[in-house]
Amino acid sequence: MAEFKEAPAGAGAGEKLLTWVDNRFPVTKFYKDHLSEYYAPKNFNWWYIFGSLALVVLVIQIVTGIFLVMNYKPDAGLAFASVELSIMRDVPSGWLIRYLHSTGASAFFIVVYLHMFRGMIYGSYRKPRELVWIFGCAIFLCLMAEAFMGYLLPWGQMSYWGAQVIVNLFSAIPFVGPDLALLIRGDYVVGDATLNRFFSFHVIAVPLVLLGLVVAHIFALHEVGSNNPDGVEIKAKKDVLGRPLDGIPFHPYYTVHDLYGLCLFLMVFSAIVFFAPEMGGYFLEANNFIPADPLKTPQHIAPVWYFTPFYSMLRATTSDMMPILWAFLVSVHLLVVRRANAPAWIKTGFVGLLAFLFFAFGVPAVLMGWVGMNAPQTALLTGFDAKFWGVVVMGGAVIILFFLPWLDASPVKSIRYRPSWHLYLYIVFVIFFAVLGYLGIKPPSPVGGLLSQIGTLVYFGFFLLMPWWSAKGEASAVPERVTFHAH
What we know:
This protein is mainly alpha-helical. 62% of the residues lie in helices and 1% in strands. A two-stranded antiparallel sheet has the order 1-2. The protein is globular and about 75 Å long. It starts with 12 loop residues before the first helix and ends in an 18-residue tail after the last helix. The relative contact order is 0.11.
């Protein structure tokens, strides 16, 4: 049993109350461990504000979501009217709450994408922060599920047909696909049962998981300490009191720093909410202001902008693309796995993966061809049609992020000290990712399809070939202590 502290003689009522609480719940200890005595590197730059901004947007989404739920009807016959008539027109300031929530969804992905990119260029996923990165990727995956389920709730045309397309993709999973799609829909078509399922997950289940992951992400970060633009571990050099020589208390220094960034963010965020909440159809699409009609398919179905890079990869995986993907996997095997200095776990794991793919999909495909079961065009190479592999590619584009700590073979963390041409690879990666996002919004076309296929190969090539290219070139010497310029 912990020893109880006594308030000092002459202490005021507030200090006595705090002492009483501390004896039962460690408020002061928590404040010191995570704010006033949590030492962060003194050379943080503006790339490091997006983590705190993501936390602020999460709070905005939770608070506005609570008020929206008070007036929303999770019923296929009433959902659209509850949003467009009740919330937008009848509820006092309901339009503001709805636009704060819809704009917040896009803002969330913007700051999360920038936060993840900062982690990539400064090597924030490297040892000892692998678990911090994994929790962050899990947050991203959970955020995608939350956004997708929330997108169905307005029950507009794009909500309905977007859900129809995405849920049907689950039916492409071998053996269990049709039953899984039926379980998700709750019916043979997207309808009232689907809406109730998505509402439950969007409001209760997924947010609970998301909040748990956010807490785990922050605690894991504070356990190992924050990375910095130099990639130098500040805990390596401490003063006689055990404080990092290159660290400063997070509060008040970085709370004030982040507060300034928050003010700038809120100015832009408020301007969008009040003057351009639809953002030209990118944040709120015109088709979603039309009630869902199962008998009338929109001319072009596309997800919201933050899903479109992965949607482009899905569309890029055609029958003609499959031989190229397999040739690409073989090339990765030759360039990465067969290297003499490749880690043993990479060699074993990748060879095992290729063997599994061959025996699980290639052999059955050949047998299907021999017995004349009208195998699809690429069955001799894949065993399943391109729709299944499109789902694999789309899912793999997210899952591969989890393995980034073990794909990077560079001797240094930060892009500052890597060969200069590494920066150009990151620029090419960002450009193609943006192109994939743009193409995902547009209707399919031959040129767009070709660009999507190139972009898909660039995306996966960037990560799968990282053990090879990240070890190339001569890195600059990393300083023993962080480089700092007052600002």
